[in-house]
Structure to design on (184 residues):
């Protein structure tokens, strides 16, 4: 259980079962992240941040970030491939091997970007339950959680991607608001 809202749910379960239940009900998905490094500049035609793959494309990847376009790497091409999300288990099973994820990512890079050489360096990470899913009713659930915390005067602030936005800017704003709302 890598997600913080579920850890928090476990911590408060005995004293605040209602709060624990609400926190536990926020769904999340697993993502595999594959970093690949190639010799040479293989993105001359693609000077961009990267791309996202719409679900209707029915591909095993969610998107690719062109790291070396944003942060030059001494003539190397560095990519970050994100895979899975909602479709993690149906695409890769519950416990895919590092090699199988690497192979899938490499094949998609070859098909999409035409990079056929093998990477000279790679890293594969599976981030379990790392992206909260904002399903219908999420906003109401977060309001109930905050109301419960306020009503019970708990010394607790909800900050992070699980509540008010998954983007970096959302998380920064969440932390800023959390600090501003602290009463000393």
């Amino acid at each position: 259980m890598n997600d913080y809202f579920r850890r928090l749910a476990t911590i408060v379960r005995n004293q605040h079962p209602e709060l624990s239940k609400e926190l536990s009900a926020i769904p999340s998905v697993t993502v595999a992240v594959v970093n690949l490094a190639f010799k040479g500049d293989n993105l001359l035609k693609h000077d961009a941040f990267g791309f996202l793959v719409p679900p209707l494309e029915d591909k095993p990847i969610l998107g690719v970030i062109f790291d070396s376009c944003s942060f030059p790497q001494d003539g190397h091409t560095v990519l970050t491939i994100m895979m899975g999300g909602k479709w993690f288990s149906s695409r890769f099973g519950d416990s895919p091997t590092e090699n199988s994820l690497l192979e899938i990512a490499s094949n998609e890079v070859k098909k999409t970007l035409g990079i056929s050489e093998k990477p000279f360096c790679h890293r594969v990470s599976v981030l379990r339950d790392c992206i909260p899913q904002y399903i219908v009713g999420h906003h109401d659930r977060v309001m109930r959680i905050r109301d419960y915390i306020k009503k019970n005067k708990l010394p607790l602030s909800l900050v992070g991607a699980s509540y008010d936005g998954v983007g970096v800017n959302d998380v920064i704003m969440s932390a800023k608001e959390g600090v501003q709302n602290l009463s000393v």
